[in-house]
Amino acid sequence: MMEYKGYFARVEFDDELEIFHGDVVNLRDVITFQSTTVKGLKKAFKDSIDDYLAFCKERGEDPDKTYSGRFVVRIEPELHKSIAVKASQTGESLNQWVQDQLKRAVG
User: Fold this and answer.
1) Is residue 67 predicted with pLDDT exceeding 90?
2) Which of 21, 62, 90, 101 is the most buried (most CB within 10 A)?
3) Residue 94: inside a domain
4) Can you list the positions of beta strands (E) in the chain?
């Protein structure tokens, strides 16, 4: 992952086209960039972010993607049961236990 001004991008390399391409993951809109070199990719990423932020400022819009704090995760029933038991053993609700585990996972 690349990071600039608190925005993150996922980058891939297309072996057939011999080009790096990326997309920003935490903006409200889809922002992509590309280059044939790592140096060019870094510049394209920063330029894309700066251009997008300027565009949003011009329009009076918030560039950040909003998160509700809710998401649905589908898991195997046996895993669901194990998690519910573990949460109960720690005296936490299922939601609190999962939130604590996710916080630990992302540091």
Assistant:
1) no
2) 21
3) yes
4) 2-4, 7-14, 19-24, 32-35
With beta carbons less than 8 A apart as the criterion, state whether 64 and 52 touch. Answer: no
Please check whether residue 8 is in contact with residue 2, taking contact to mean a CB–CB distance below 8 angstroms: yes
pTM of the model: 0.72
Two tokens, residue 83:
């998690």
Number of folded domains that form the chain: 2
The predicted-structure confidence for 90-107, as pLDDT tens digits, reads as follows: 999 999 999 999 999 999
In this structure, the number of other CB atoms found within 10 A of the CB of residue 83 comes to 15
- Count the alpha carbons within 13 Å of 12 in the hemisphere toward its beta carbon: 7
For 38, the domain range is 2-59
Mean pLDDT of 36-45: 97
Do residue 10 and residue 55 come from a single domain?
A: yes
Binning the chain into helix, strand and coil, the percentages to the nearest 5 are 45, 20, 35
Largest distance between two CA atoms of the chain: 54
Q: 10 pairs with which residues across the strands?
A: 23
